Structures are given as C-alpha cells and as structure tokens.
Amino acid sequence: MKIKPSFIPAYEIYEYRIILQPHEDLCNKINAIKRSFAEMYQLPVYRYAKPDISLVRFTQYEMVEEKIMYRLQNIAMSNASFPIELKDYGSFPTHSIFINVATKTNIVAFVKEIKSIQKLMKPDDEHKPHFIIEPFITIAAKLLPWQYEKAWLEYSNTNFTAMFMANEILLVKRKAGEKKYHTIKHFQFLNQKITAAQTSLFTC
Length: 204
Hints:
Layout: E1 13-20, H1 24-40, E2 53-61, H2 65-77, E3 82-92, E4 96-101, H3 105-114, E5 130-131, E6 136-140, H4 145-155, E7 161-166, E8 168-175, E9 182-188, H5 196-199
Antiparallel strand pairs: 1-2, 1-8, 2-5, 3-4, 3-7, 4-6, 8-9
C-alpha cells in the first residue's frame, strides 16, 4: 500500500498492527508446527517471528505515533488479563490455514474499545483501519491451490488445543512496503481505573 504524503512530506508512512502474543513456550510450539507445515508442503523455511493474534491493522504517519501510544496505554491499563483458548484449525479457502481462537468474546470487546481511537489510525479517509473480529493465528498463507487442498485435507482432521493468558498488547510497525515488523511498545493490562483527566489529555 502506497500513500503519497501530499501535505506532510517530511514524515514517513508506516504500517502498524496491534497484536496479542502467546507465551514463549506456546510460541515455540506453534512455530514448530509452521516449520513442519513448510517442509511438508514445500514452502520456504525461514526463521519465524513469534506467532500472534492481530487485533487491528492500520497505516499512519509516524508523527501520530505518540498520541496513539498514549491512548493505547490508557485502554490497556483499564483492562484486566483474560484467558484465550486455541482449538483446532480453520482455513480461508483457498489460500490460508490457521489455528482457531475458541474464546472470542473478550477479544471482540477489547477491539471495540480500540475503535474509540480509530480517528488516530488513518492518514486520510481512503485508508481506514481494519479491526479484526474473527481472531486467529496463521500457520500458512498465500498457498497455491494444491498446497491448500492437500494441507487442509490433513489439518481439518487434526486436533490442537492450548490456552494462554492475555496480559498485554503490543504495537508493532514497519515502513510501508517492508516485510518485517518491529515492536514499538508493550502495553500491560493492569485493571486500573483511568480518570477523565488522563483520557482527555490527548483527543482524537
């Protein structure tokens, strides 16, 4: 996605994601599944980043980053940790296979809270943020038809169960057009009451 910074040429455009991430042991377990999948279905094998659950994807000028982080901090601080259960596999015919998120209610409610700052998450009206209300963890994407068909025949009949506590969200970014995301900040769930003065310090 390319956006021409017509009115702020001095600032760069970045692609951002807000994510939930499993604990280290579960990340390693899922990455082992991804490596096995890649070897079996002739995908490039590389060093995988930690698996995650995307909540929001958006594009914005870097100059807005501090305001977004402040508002995310307030949202995270006001929320308590919650469990996330993963169960079995799902797919997007005919190109992707993923691990299902079985417990969606808390995630959907949290995404709804983030929507309150959506005006900060777009450089213009043509590039609106994408809020994900059907969460999942990707195993493989951009599959060829034969890869998808053969793999889904196996994974649709394969069991997987796991659970982890969502204790924080992460904000990650990359320059538009780049492949690798970099973590900017962790925002912990502290279950604290946020005052009106704190929430109004930065407005959308």
